[in-house]
Amino acid sequence: MSVLPFPSFLDDVKEKGLKRAVFELVDESVERLTAGMNIQDVREALRGEAPSRKPNPRLQPHADGFWLHMRPSYFHSDMTGLYPTFRLGWLSTYFVFFETITGILLMVWYTPSPEVAYHDMINMLTNVPLGQLMRDLHRLGAEAMVLIVALHMVRTWVTGSYKKPRQFTWFTGLILLVITGFLSFTGYLLPWDQLALWAVTIGASMIEATPPPVVGENLNLLIRGGPEIGANGLLRFYLLHVLALPALLFVFTGVHYYKVIVHGHSLPPQKENIGEDTAKRVPLDRRVYFIPDVLTSELLWVGVTTLILVVLCIWFYDAPLEHHADPQVTPLGTTAPWYFLWIQGALKLGDKVFWGLIFPGALLGVMAVWPYIDVTPSRRYAHRRFALTLILLLISFVTILSYMGLPEFGVVTAPDTSIIHELTYPPAHNHMGKLLPVPYDQLVPGMYTTREFSDEATSLSDFNQEIETLMAPTADGRMQSIEANLLDELQNQDYLVVTNLNFVPVPGDAPALRSVMEEFAAMIKKHDKELVNAWGGIIITQNQADLKRVDVIVSWDTVEIDNGRPVLDADGSPVLVRDANGNVVRSQNIQHIFIHRDGGYFSN
Amino acid sequence: MLQGMIFPKIENRILVGVLSFVTIMVLLGWAAINEGGRMAAFEQTFHARSIEQGAALFTSNCSTCHGSDGLGGAKGPALNNPQLFGYDFFPEVTKEIGALRTEKTDLQNEASRPDTTPERLAEIDTRLAEIDARIEELDAPRRQQLQAAIDRGYDPQRPSRLQNVGWAGTTESFVLTTLIHGRPVSNNYWSGGGMVAWSQTAGGPLRMDQLEDLTAYIMNWQRAWTLEDLFAVKQFAIEPVDPTPLRAQIEQLQASGGVIPEPVGTNVRDIVAQLAEVTGDPARGDALYHGTDGARSFNGTALGCSTCHLPEGVAVGPQTGGTYTRVLNERLNDPALASYTPEQYLVESIVLPNNYIVPGFQGLMIANFGQNLSIQDLADLLAYLETQQ
Fold it and tell me: Based on the domain organization, do B145 and B259 belong to the same domain?
């Protein structure tokens, strides 16, 4: 006999038998957990059958449960297809949680300090099981989120869903877009590698331009924690990334979604009369209930999206990690993150204040108030030619500006520097210098020249003879042979152990090296206006066991350069620079890199 | 088409969704199983790239003093050096001689005690003679094999740099600590000052990760050492000189009323005038030049000329062989040196080495020989160089 005022489980067992008592206990637990659906109800829902109980138990979780009380209990059947939402809003929401979870896992292994941040990254990659995968997922998820949120905005514009009464929903959405961008941007700095430091330095340089100078300077100090990004800046970016911005994101996500539910999902434009908003009046026969149809659909999207991300991260994508951040070394061709490239491109158009601040600011401002300007009632595509043209123009403009943001556009780099960079640059953005992936064993120690692959019919022995005997004035006015000038720099500035230059043919068993030399020759030929009478050389030496040193040489007749372009005479030939005696001045550029057998730039 | 659900039937949605989740779990499990290999591979790659970074740093920051190939130079000892890694080419000999020397010290201590009987003293003397003979017997062949390195300051009985400085940690920690803090040394044995601190923590220019890269590069010189590696070393670490014997010499000299030599300074004309009054000894000059038999200049400096001026071939400085002929036939033909005598040229090259740099070389020679040579030292060196026809 129970001491409780109601029958205990043991009483139930005595009364109904064990099997039945256990079943009822489980059934009751399920009903409590789902806030209204028992096992039978769940089974019916998952089988796609109609509910057998009245009132409909599938509505109960929406009324009594916490999680589903914020979801509508049914959708209009026109809203459950791919069109018009493309599920972008749901995916944006999902990515908020996806990024939060992967981000928290990464936080466990990360310290925001310049002394240890990079070590923590390496530790995560070498010592934490699934650490690299988590980092890849977080990074790829972040980039996907920026893209999805932007597409969500474009979709809302295209279907005219920002129109009355959803103006404020649009406004909060725009804030979410900006927060997403800043979240991604602040996270960019945290690995504390060269990519992070310089992308963020470029991105943050706009802040300094804010007029008047006293504001710009102080804003810059405030966000960077000093004139340059250092320990304070890293800590501030970290706190923005894990505290301030997520807090704002959650608040505005709440407001945004609340507004979505209050006004209902706007139907496809052609499905309702002009000026009407019937989202909240769903006819009985058009209702698609959340449980089970929308719920299974949403979980399906989440599952497939996550699967795609996991597959990409395991086999196709690795979050970039370059060398340790170094404020002293600016890598050639530094860019902002891709979603800020358009601002970098705009900056090339002219004034920093206008293109870097006023223009993006005005763009966001116009977008924010657009629903209050565009008050025409019709959402039909045919009636919104201006708005649709505008968004297409905007997309084209931003795309073109983004292209202009790339280093290929409008940045004048001396051809010798860019050729050497092209051959030697360390892995960045998943690309690397052409020499790096040459298999280690094909880097046969020796001296090779592009003359072997040029059209000129000189033999290598003639070439060796030529550089040894041909005297030319150097850039600093000494008269000596090309070989002596090169040796001067190699021995005294680059500390290469070398006594003379003797170029030999590329060995037959080094096809990868040969193809690099051929590309080297082609690049030099391509710049024959700036690099007159030029040749390239590669000197490979064994520096240590399993470590080779590669010196890359470009030697050419100097031409007059004006504003980054060669000065041409009346015949269209470049004007050569001569010394007082009329001899053409010979220039040279030499850089070297080291390649270790286990450097992992190649697979063999 | 776009207006329907992607999978209109609920069972298909459930199927694809469940399959996706299961696949994710399987993939995560599969990735987890392979993590050990992946992490090891990444660590290897990272270490390799650390060595590459270190190599670049070494070339631009360290090779001026330690040599492009790490074999040592005028201002720094070799790091690409079996001695740094404590490699002993004759471990058995070292061990046996070490034991004999311990025994010798013990016996000498015993002999100096007042209660030792004359019979025991005689025994000890016999045993000491045996020990000396045995040490010589063991050491002679070793010295013969290692002579080229011994000429440059290598001590076969003390093959480990770490033991010589009493370092209790690993070679790696020794290298890293030295990089961080640098090393203050006396001008008497490492002219040109000590090594600066390289770490930003200690006021230097490099970050900790860069020092770790450098350490990785230096440690990568560790290999199966051969005698060729030892002979390639251009400069071994220099140990501080024990001042006791020098002090004794000076005291003797003072007691006998002798004159304590003074450094020659850098006034070439004065020096040449003084040289007329002394006679050089080519044999002592040879010893000073090569540092053989512990030969040192008047103030106890090991000159170490042969570190940079090898007998044959180009090293940090011009080769020793044929010096005098080259001075006569090549150098003095340079218009810049028109009025020079060979003697004057050599004196200037030693006390003011940067006045004229032989084409093809850098001005790496230390400019403090004026302070470390007496007129007799200089005369001996010139007499030796005159034999290098």
Answer: no
Q: Do strands A586-596 and A547-557 pair parallel, antiparallel, or not at all (unpaired)?
A: antiparallel
- Are the beta carbons of A65 and A34 closer than 8 angstroms? yes
Residue B1, pLDDT > 80, answer: no
Instruction: Tell me, yes or no, whether A449 and A582 share the same domain.
Output: yes
Question: Given strand A586-596, what is the order of strands in its sheet?
Answer: A446-449, A532-544, A547-557, A586-596
CB atoms within 10 A of CB B290: 20
Q: Specify whether A67 is located in the same domain as A128.
A: no
Distance CA A515, CA A450 (A): 11
- Residue A229: its pLDDT value, please? 87
Cis peptide before A84 (omega within 30 of 0): yes
Report the chain B residue with the minimal C-alpha distance to residue A548. Answer: B52
Of chain B residues 95-134, which have a CB less than 8 A from chain A?
Answer: none
**B96 burial level (CB within 10 Å; 0-12, 13-18, 19+):** middle
* Chain B residues close to A326, C-beta within 8 Å: 207
Closest CA in chain A for residue B360:
A488
Structure confidence at residue A209 as a pLDDT band (50, 70, 90): confident
> Are residue A488 and residue A582 in the same domain, yes or no?
yes
CA distance A404 to A161: 32
Question: Two tokens at B59?
Answer: 């070339």
Average confidence score pLDDT of chain B? 88
Domain for residue A249, yes or no?
Answer: yes
Whether B234 is covered by a domain: the verdict is no
- Going by C-alpha positions, the residue among B86, B222, B83 that lies closest to residue A547 is B222
Cβ pair A324:B210 closer than 8 A: yes
Residues A41 and A148 in one domain: no
pLDDT (tens digit, 9 = 90+) per residue, A72-108? 999 999 999 899 999 999 999 999 999 999 999 999 9
Amino acid identity of residue A96, one-letter, is V
Range of the domain at A437: 415-596
CA distance A21 to A37: 19
Measured distance CA(B376)–CA(B292) in Å, rounded: 18
**A460, A601, A597, A594: which is closest to A517 by C-alpha?**
A460
Among chain A residues, CA nearest to B201: A115
With beta carbons less than 8 A apart as the criterion, state whether A423 and A552 touch: yes
| Helix (DSSP H) and strand (DSSP E) numbers for chain B | 17, 0
Has residue A598 got a pLDDT over 50? yes
**Residue A551 to residue A494: CA distance in whole angstroms:** 9
Same domain, A429 and A317: no
Q: How far is CA A386 from the centre of its chain?
A: 32
A279 contacts A263 by C-beta, under 8 angstroms: yes
- Going from the C-alpha of A178 to that of each of A156, A182, A248, A365, B267, the distances in angstroms are 16, 6, 11, 12, 75
Q: Do B4 and A81 touch (CB under 8 A)?
A: yes
> From the CA of A113, how many Å to the nearest CA of chain B?
13
The closest alpha carbon to A558, from A479, A480, A486, A475, belongs to A475
Distance CA A159, CA A173 (A): 15
Residues in chain B: 389
Chain A residue with Cα closest to B46: A599
Same domain, A63 and A90: no
In a mutational test of the B interface, the residue from A307, A440, A491, A496 whose CB has the highest number of chain B CBs within 10 Å is A307
pLDDT tens figures, A227-277: 888 899 999 999 999 999 999 999 999 999 999 999 999 999 988 899 888
Q: What tokens were used for B158?
A: 């003390």
Q: How many CB atoms lie within 10 A of CB B265?
A: 14
Q: How far apart are CA A42 and CA A34, in angstroms?
A: 9
Tell me, yes or no, if B51 comes closer than 8 A to chain A by beta carbon: yes
| Secondary structure (DSSP) of A233-275 | HHHHHHHIIIIIHHHHHHHHHHHHHHHHHHH-PPPPGGGS-TT
